[in-house]
Design goal:
By secondary structure, the chain is an alpha/beta fold. The protein has 5 domains: 61 residues; 96 residues, Glutaredoxin, CATH 3.40.30; 215 residues, NADH-ubiquinone oxidoreductase 51kDa subunit (Rossmann fold, 3-Layer(aba) Sandwich), CATH 3.40.50.11540; 76 residues, Roll (Ubiquitin-like (UB roll)); 84 residues, Up-down Bundle (de novo design (two linked rop proteins)). Helices cover 44% and strands 12% of the residues. The protein is built from 25 helices and 14 strands. The strands form 3 sheets. A 6-stranded mixed beta sheet has the order 5-11-10-14-12-13. The chain has a 4-stranded mixed beta sheet with strand order 2-1-3-4, with helices on one face. β10 and β11 form a beta hairpin. α1 crosses α2. It is globular and about 90 Å long.
């Protein structure tokens, strides 16, 4: 037997057996393979394809799609700096340069001895305690020059992560303002017992009475979604918890999973009871890998308490269990059909709808997909009743909303308000004294200027998935929009042309303006491309990608105008400069070897 085949058997076979050689678990098999080998070599791809009865191209396509899968060696210490706009505001660029300099590396480069690689990634969900980075999937928060120097010394000394100072990895909840979810005491199983007393139809009725709308951003009524799934044809149903919290500036789900996971799991179990599902799946974003073991331990404790598994709470036939699946770095998987594709072991590209997941979801079966906050709130409704919950918030937006607040404020963190709270009140509470703009809902959300701070957080006014980034009067909103646009370009799945090409064109135009070569022509092109993206893109990513540019163009036009040249049009590409290597090769630099200015 060759060395390659020997390695394959030793490393891969136990992983394959653990997942029953089921190709729908390809993502988890690849993740564990990479955790063992630091990357996924070609021989592993060959072995997995054969063992799972997949074409090699199918396995390779999954590796290529996700940012956190590597087909070539990375450093033993894989450092990824969070590059969200709030990290930049807190100085991450200088800290990244400092670390690169200490190792003599370029960004993305692996050191010659294979010890370290240093690069950037999108938002890591640590906006309230940045700048932050991930090292081998573990977050290091509150970076400073001193902490960077310490990290460099630890890496150079090949110190195992478990021997690094514990405070490096401290992730705080930073709960600043508690509403009913964060302040209500919960006894494990209490809400579930109440749901069982009501029965599936009675619990569904409570959800509908509450007029509770999902907290993922779209705001679809949760009781109606559960009812549609319950009434769909077929015997097998699924509940999916969307914990792929990838929207820049959002970290509320991180806190719920870290400190309120029992509420989330109880909400999933209640949803399973109502719709008649026996399996729940948590799709946990790759950046939250560090939580995995703790969450699995919580699930095991619930099984021992008869809150998961067979005949839950002694109810014959009430069978429900939960699996946790990790993503691998793809913002688009926050879209529910892309998430389902990923759970099935495929690249996370959004599906064409209809059909919708409530009738044709995971493995083609009726599926409810709710986000972390939605499921936690469902347990609260079971515990206290739909009428009680409906009494909170506004008529069209009942209950409370968790907000992840970051940026230019004294007290970043988690705030829970009843719907209807004004932006001005939030800014006062978080200590944002000189706010010029607020980005509500993350990069894909709405940018509000000072004259709009009287508006309210509610589905009927300013809707949000939970992010609220504050920008002080010293910030450049052009650069904010440019950062968001590069994020969308990087995260486009490439499925549809409007998004794939449109985000690239918008980035190119913004870069051209930043380089002092923009004109009124480029401004008109940005508006045209935003219109194209919003109307022709396949999914929500592309449809909302141009929004930060469009909003800042309308509300902060001077930040664009001061960068514009006075000409009607100026090409971004300098053809004469591009021909310099040819002139050098031919040893010509006379006038005839240059392009005329009229060209």
């Amino acid at each position: 037997m060759s060395l390659v085949h020997s390695s394959a058997g030793e490393v891969l076979e136990p992983i394959l057996e653990r997942y029953s050689r089921n190709p729908r678990h390809l993502m988890q098999i690849l993740r564990e393979t990479q955790e063992r080998l630091d990357f996924i070599p070609a021989w592993a791809v060959d072995h997995l394809a054969e063992a799972l009865a997949l074409a090699r191209t199918q396995v390779q396509a999954v590796i290529d799609f996700y940012a956190f899968f590597y087909g070539s060696p990375r450093g033993k210490y894989r450092v990824l700096f969070s590059d969200n706009v709030t990290d930049r505001m807190q100085g991450n660029t200088a800290l990244l340069s400092r670390m690169l300099s200490k190792f003599g590396l370029a960004q993305g480069q692996v050191s010659g001895d294979g010890l370290v690689s240093i690069d950037t990634t999108s938002c890591t969900g640590m906006c309230d305690q940045g700048p932050a980075l991930l090292v081998n999937s573990y977050p290091v928060t509150r970076l400073s020059s001193q902490r960077i120097d310490q990290i460099c010394e630890l890496i150079k000394g090949r110190t195992p992560l478990e021997e690094w100072p514990a405070e490096f990895f401290r992730v705080e909840d930073n709960i600043r303002y508690k509403g009913v979810l964060l302040s209500t005491e919960m006894v494990n199983g209490q809400a579930l017992k109440r749901a069982v007393e009501l029965g599936p139809q009675g619990m569904l009725a409570e959800m509908k009475v509450s007029n509770f709308r999902g907290r993922g951003g779209a705001g679809f009524t949760t009781g109606v979604k559960w009812e549609a799934c319950r009434n769909a044809s077929g015997e097998t149903r699924y509940v999916i918890c969307n914990a792929d919290e990838g929207e820049p500036g959002t970290f509320k789900d991180r806190v719920l999973l870290a400190s309120f996971s029992e509420r989330v799991f109880e909400g999933m179990t209640i949803a399973g009871y109502v719709i008649g599902a026996s399996k729940g799946l948590v799709y946990l974003r790759a950046e939250y890998r560090y939580m995995l073991e703790k969450l699995q331990a919580a699930l095991e404790a619930r099984r021992k308490a008869n809150l998961l598994g067979k005949d839950i709470l002694g109810q014959k036939g009430f069978d429900f269990d939960i699996e946790i699946h990790l993503g691998a770095g793809a913002y688009v998987c926050g879209e529910e059909t892309a998430l389902i594709e990923s759970l099935e072991g495929k690249p996370g590209r959004p599906r064409i709808r209809p059909p919708f997941p409530v009738t044709h979801g995971y493995l083609g079966k009726p599926t409810v997909v709710n986000n972390v906050e939605t499921l936690a709130k469902a347990s609260l409704i079971a515990q206290n009743g739909g009428a009680w919950y409906r009494g909170l918030g506004t008529k069209l937006s009942t209950g409370t909303k968790l907000l992840s607040i970051s940026g230019d404020c004294d007290r970043p963190g988690i705030y829970e308000y009843p719907f209807g709270v004004r932006i001005a009140q939030i800014l006062e509470d978080c200590g944002a004294r000189n706010a010029m703009a607020v980005q509500v809902g993350g990069a894909a959300g709405t940018c509000l200027a000072q004259h709009e701070f009287g508006r309210k957080i509610a589905f009927e006014d300013v809707s949000t998935s939970g992010a609220l980034m504050v920008f002080g009067n010293n910030r450049d909103m052009f650069e904010v929009a440019r950062n968001f646009m590069h994020f969308f370009k990087h995260e486009s799945c490439g499925f549809c042309t409007p998004c794939r090409v449109g985000t690239t064109l918008m980035c190119n135009i913004l870069d051209k303006i930043a380089n002092g070569k923009g004109t009124a022509y480029e401004m008109n092109e940005l508006s045209r491309l935003h219109q194209l993206l919003s109307t022709a893109s396949h999914c929500g990513l592309g449809q909302s990608a141009g929004r930060p540019v469009n909003d800042t163009l309308q509300k902060f036009r001077p930040s664009y105008d001061r960068r514009l040249s006075q000409k009607d049009f100026e090409p971004a590409f300098d053809l004469d400069a591009a021909l310099a290597p040819a002139r050098e090769i031919t040893e010509r630099d006379d006038a005839d070897a240059h392009l005329g200015t009229d060209l």
